[in-house]
Write a structure and sequence with these properties.
single chain, 208 residues, 9 helices
Length: 208
């Protein structure tokens, strides 16, 4: 069960990495209002992704027979999707303009979280990434050794840890500029590309 928990935590961390409106929101709130506001924004996205994780775990359980019969193909396709997300993150990510300019806001920290929750929940790509990750790591509600509530909490914990580290880096490096932000994005993208490539190669080897 320990390995399974680590996989679930990894899913939560990886699903938060791709660039998009949520990442921009977290970055902006951190630079404009401080680390706590940025972290609360990330937690809002975490709750939305927890919902997607719940849907994904139960959905994969319903189609477990298909997954077992096409495990190698799913690993190959899922790995390639993760590689694509990593490429987009590494080479197409652009920091928000004027994100370092601080200004006052009427929104509270809870409001920032709700803003990110709605933003993440309305992103159709998030559920696709979540499904790909769960399939790659062979995680579904029927075969989990741990209770489903613990699985969701592990996914949430992984994402919370990611946002905690991310906002910490941003808040302590306010002078790294646009080039620094791009380097961070490229580093995270390269990590995803390595994970995806490894998964895709493993799937290809099984197919041969």
């Amino acid at each position: 069960m320990g390995i399974e928990v680590l996989k679930l935590i990894a899913v939560g961390a990886i699903v938060a990495m791709p660039p998009g409106p949520v990442l921009v929101l977290v970055l902006q709130k951190t630079l404009q209002h401080g680390r706590t506001s940025g972290f609360c924004t990330g937690l809002g996205a975490m709750f939305a992704d927890a919902i997607y994780a719940t849907v994904g775990l139960f959905t994969l359980g319903l189609i477990q027979g298909f997954i077992n019969d096409n495990e190698s193909l799913i690993m190959l396709a899922g790995g390639l999707i993760i590689v694509l997300v990593g490429c987009l993150m590494a080479f197409r990510n652009k920091p928000p303009r004027n994100a370092r300019e601080r200004h006052t806001s009427k929104l509270t920290k809870a409001g920032f979280g709700m803003q990110a929750f709605v933003c993440a929940l309305s992103n159709p790509g998030a559920i696709a990434i979540m499904m790909a990750l769960l399939a790659v790591f062979s995680l579904d509600a029927k075969t989990l050794a741990c209770p489903i509530w613990l699985a969701i909490m592990c996914v949430a914990l992984g994402e919370a840890c990611y946002w905690f580290i991310f906002t910490g880096i941003v808040s302590h490096s306010l002078n790294f500029g646009e080039k620094g932000l791009r380097r961070i994005a490229r580093f995270g993208g390269l990590i995803l590309m390595v994970i995806g490539a490894g998964t895709a190669i493993a799937g290809l080897i099984k197919m041969i």
